[in-house]
Amino acid sequence: MEIKDYTLPEELYYEPNHYWVKVEGDLLVMGMNDFAQKMAGEVVFVQLPFEGKKLKAGKKFSQVESGKWLGKVYAPVNGKIAVSNQELEVNPGLINEDCYGKGWMFKIQPNDMGELENLIHGPDAIESWMLEEIEKFVKE
Length: 140
Known about the structure:
The glycine cleavage system catalyzes the degradation of glycine. The H protein shuttles the methylamine group of glycine from the P protein to the T protein. Belongs to the GcvH family. The protein has helices at residues 34-40, 87-90, 94-97, 123-137, and strands at 2-3, 6-7, 13-15, 19-24, 27-32, 43-46, 54-55, 60-66, 69-74, 79-84, 106-110. It has 140 residues and is an alpha+beta fold. A six-stranded antiparallel β-sheet has the order 3-4-5-11-10-7.
């Protein structure tokens, strides 16, 4: 779905700090959403945690850097890192080019898929959250 100038696929789950989550088999794929990558500008660095790193929902486990911003990445669920996108070490700009595809960041092995219910999901919830965020952060 398009909200103002931002693309937010409605089948995804969203963490309040603008990271998306998609179910892929028994893993969760995670990345930065369109709003966050546009606000950050050109991404120049992504900290890739080691595979097996334990995650606690709501706690910082990584960071992303652009020319004008240093952002924290928070765990959307409890679990552990299964895979980090190694391509981002060489080309962190993939996040800007294709944030929902080649620019994915992490694959997470969740402790409980039921925790997805704590994330923002569904067209109505996504739209109201995004409009609030645009109001809060975008200077027109």
